[in-house]
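Final paragraph of the annual report: two paired records, presented back to back.
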Amino acid sequence: MISYHPDSRFLTDFVSGDLPVSQAICVSAHLEFCGKCRARVHQIEALGGILLSQLPSQAPDADSFDQLMSRIESEEETLSEGSARAPSTAPGSGVPAALADVDWPRALGDWTGKYLENLQWVQFGKDLRVAPLPIDEDRRDFSIYDIRAGGKMPSHGHGGEEISVLLKGSYSDAEGKYTRGDFIVRNSGENHQPTATQDSDCICLVSLERPVAPDRWFYRLANPLVQYRLNSARQRVRSRIDGL
């Protein structure tokens, strides 16, 4: 069962088209799993239309926006979880076997097959590998994370916002346990160490405002090399896609 959702401001910015592309993809991916948030999006669209129709000659002010948020939040309890939408169709045969059974979000569209068949994985120790995606490069770092079953990411903090959406498996940290479809936000100053459960690899879409900051000194020393490897992998994927 999905326990972690984007808040009302995330959903409002999604409806209005104000989110960076990678954030919008993460929200859209969550919506494919979560009937409750799909209902909230429809509600925001309807309430926004009513609000704008009542104010034809001027832009809504801050008080109007706050009233909209208050109305949305007051009605959240009436919404049911609902059923998840069917996942996107499986990508082509060139996709690695470990990713073939992942519910890739429709928001990736034509990118799904092209990117997944041309991923450049960067390995970090025995438990984690990261495949950068050349999407939203001027605003965020957007990647696929694969944490080995039972494996741990290095403990790290954040210098900016991190959004993760689980597409397969589950993981836990000091704040809780997260399962398929969950939308998890970590903000600047927060630290955690995601640990995948033993039954399956954990596959996530991750959008980062800034690179993570490892807690342990030897990971911090290696961080410039890590960023170089990720940027190089992203450039190789872009070159392959451009050549198709």
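The closing record of the year follows.
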Amino acid sequence: MRGHEDAAGDVREDTAGRGEAAVDQGEAAAAEFAEVAAFRDSLGLDALVDVHTHFMPDRVMAKVWAYFDAAGPLVGRHWPIAYRAEEERRLATLRGFGVRAFTSMLYPHKPGMARWLNDWSADFAARTPDCLHTATFFAEPSAADDVRRALGQGTRVFKCHLQVGGYDPNDPLLDEVWGLLADAGVPVVTHCGSGPVPGPFTGPGPITALLARHPRLRLVVAHLGMPEYEDFLGLAERHDGVHLDTTMAFTDFSESAAPFPTRALPRLAALGDRILLGTDFPNIPYPYPHALRALERTGLGPTWLRAVCHDNATALFTLPPR
């Protein structure tokens, strides 16, 4: 039998190990904060606005992380979570990056989820004033009531995930939803591109049909429409209410599988007032500063970057001036 002194030694060793890990994490975070601050300083910005970040109920987030860990069918590749931590630490990290406003993107994968997700998100926004109140919906009979209720709660942005939800945006169950959102002028961040794995209703076709019926919608195409970048750029060129977010675009991780065509960079530059910073924090497989440096290496210049990283979203969500 081992003695108390041996056991105490193990405890001291374990505690010391955890302490060293905490110091290492703290130093890594400080280095990342400094890198993002340098990026902001180079653009004359004291803050960023990130329109594509994820906050969810703990048990839902745990399931999402488990799905990424398993490289599930909708992920299709190894995808380590860079910022796996409890909620308060994730919030502190975003704020440490100088993000003045962000979202709590969440999404149902089956009927009956949207309303309780929205109730959680309303509470989260109430206790997190720098979060843009976010809501979602699903193609189900209660969809219009769910959206009407969320709008009444003060929602400022919706998330529509066609890949995970597996529904057609032109489903008759959503007709009233799109009308409500068009009338309200509330932006809808929509995962409609076919990355990382296509779904039955991803790609430009379904969204093109939707906008033909609801041309006043304010859609934010997530991930620049990856991998159908040029098709979704065309959609934005034809519809003034269509924006695109930069989530994961131009990073080494995405470029290895779905490179952005360099011939389309002038079109991206021309749409400069409708491109918004998004990152997918915390569910990204690389450090947050890499997402910003990836945008920088497009060569589109500081004026474009300033608009993307702050000014465009500030205008879209009528944020107070800094």
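The CA atoms of residues 55 and 87 lie 8 Å apart. This concludes the annual technical report; the extension proposal builds directly on these records.
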